[in-house]
Amino acid sequence: MTIAHNLERVYENVARACTRSGRAPESITLVAVSKTHPAEHVLEAAACGLQHFGENRVEEAEIKIPLVSAQLSIPVTWHMIGHIQSRKAREVAFLFQWVHSVDTSKLATRLSNFSVEQGKRLPVMLEMNVSGEEAKYGLQASGWNEDPSIREQLWNEVRQIIELPGLEIRGLMTMAPIVDTMEQARPVFRSLAQLRSALVESFGIALPELSMGMTDDYPVAVEEGSTIIRIGRAIFGERES
Ligand SMILES: *Cc1c(COP(=O)(O)O)cnc(C)c1O
Question: How far is the CA of 94 from the centre of ligand 1 (A)?
Fold first, then answer.
């Protein structure tokens, strides 16, 4: 299977999900998740017209991003999608154009400081742990709609983050739990969309992006309003590590 062939199938599935939900395919950005895959595969994907790439480890991105940049005449956009240790915030603010995985106000503050230092405002998504799984990163958001104390804590955290001068909060991101059928992921995606509406109403800010949907569940995520899907295996094949 070539990347071009795989991509065609992804576009087809996105188009079908858009038809089912009355959405325009242009309203969805495809981020190709190239983690564990070499720079050559990124170049092959870029030659197919892909413009957005996602990585989850700073150490890997520090090597891959310059390698890819050196060989492309049209720059691509790099998205940090993985958990970030605070001590790596400087590198992240320098290497990436987007960050999907802002999961604490401490990290947000550091990213903001380093962005200000570089004279820029970094577009970010707030990662929400909507499913409540313990092993998952993200701001604690499970039960935000039922439990006033969870809601208050989450709202406080968001209030601190939106005031930071170096960040532009573009939306919310989540990862669905691993489930048997993608239909089982739907409540998590729906909850993230509802949380977005609630935050927009409370804070009077625009949160245009919902970063949700991966290889196993993106058609359902699109039906539930995703604007950014993060796809690895369906484009590049299985990862070895
Ligand atoms: C690896 C990864 C993806 C892509 O996963 P696939 O199942 O290969 O599509 C998306 N989002 C995050 C945060 C990831 O770490």
Answer: 22
